[in-house]
Amino acid sequence: MTNPVSIMSIEWKTLELKNILGNYHLGELVGFEQDRRGTVNTSFTIEMEQDGQRRKYFLRRYKRGIQEEEIQCEHSLISHLIEAQTLPVAHLHRTLDGRTYLHRFAGPDDQEGAFYAIFDFLPGEDRYTWVDPTCTPEELVSSAITLAQLHSAVNGFQPSGKRAEAKILDLLPEISRNVAACPEKAKNTEFDAYLLENLELVLGNVSSTLAVLTESQVDGLPQLVVHCDYHPGNIKFHESQVSGLFDFDWSKVDLRSFDVGLAVWYFCASWKLPEDGELRLTDLAIFLGAYQEYLRLQPGARPLSLLEGQYLPYLINAGNLYVLNWTILDFYSKDVDPGEYLIYLRHSVNFIRWFEAAGNLERLKALIQDIVKN
């Protein structure tokens, strides 16, 4: 028997999409499928027909609460990268009034409205998500080169607008406060029990990381527009090569080496027990080595300096704390599956345990310094 709720949902989504598409000149909607991979925005693959030709696009409805200047920041970055013609980035389609995004209100009682954007549909395979990606060596090399190309392309670029989120060094104290406030929000779930059990471990790790990253030398580390969510789930592959890079809505001006550190954490931290949370140092060497080598060969580009390499281990750890903070905030602000979010939380806590275990930080420092100085 057909579920009437499912029918209503499909009919409502179809009507919503048609109302949105009425603000574009892309033809007639002939099909759509919701993208279930995203955890922040709501997105659809849509198929349009125009002049007898069918074409796919990617439509995003941004999360509630996003500020217009954040979208302006993202879209100015995308426009800059498209003009640079060095990265496989999806073009934005303009509305009938020439904007790269649509701000639409559902009715007279909707005071906030919602923002929408339509992108070209990138070629390639969605091979991974951010959870448990295990890339091949060839994929690691291509992904690292793509990140290096991104950093090279934005060198000196100043985006329009800005992201509301603070830079990582200013965000770490906020992360500490968010973690410390968790006992007051506890929902009596397995997620809460595990978090409360490891609360002091997490708070101690934030404190020690902040102590290192507030040293005066950190002020001199290069800053530029960073992706801030560079992981295998935001990349498409054709065979072993990157064929598409997307999801720039978390981009902001921050430490270049934080973007590298966060990417290393996403690409190289194991998810499988009993190694969950451990960095695969062989993968790290492949990724970081490819990043450095590409930038060494580019005129005017700069690979990570020795000073950036010195602080990179702590910025990898800061990347873990950045994702842990998202996990906590998302869990306590939404009605989500505690079991699913416990997997994310345990992964971050296990990384902290690995990072603080005897000898691991020293091995990580030695490996990074060896790669950076060569």
The total beta strand count reads 10
And the CATH topology of the largest domain?
A: Aminoglycoside 3'-phosphotransferase, Chain: A, domain 2
CA(first)-CA(last) distance: 65 Å
The assigned CATH architecture of the largest domain is: Alpha-Beta Complex
CA radius of gyration is: 21 Å
Number of domains: 2
Principal-axis shape equals globular
Characterization of this structure:
The protein is of the alpha+beta class and about 375 residues long. It folds into two domains: about 5-120, Phosphorylase Kinase, domain 1, CATH 3.30.200; about 135-374, Aminoglycoside phosphotransferase (APH), C-terminal lobe (Aminoglycoside 3'-phosphotransferase, Chain: A, domain 2, Alpha-Beta Complex). About 50% of the residues lie in helices and about 15% in strands. The protein has twelve helices and ten strands. Strand 8 (about 235-240) and strand 9 form a beta hairpin. The chain is globular and about 65 Å long. Residues about 1-10 have low confidence and may be disordered.
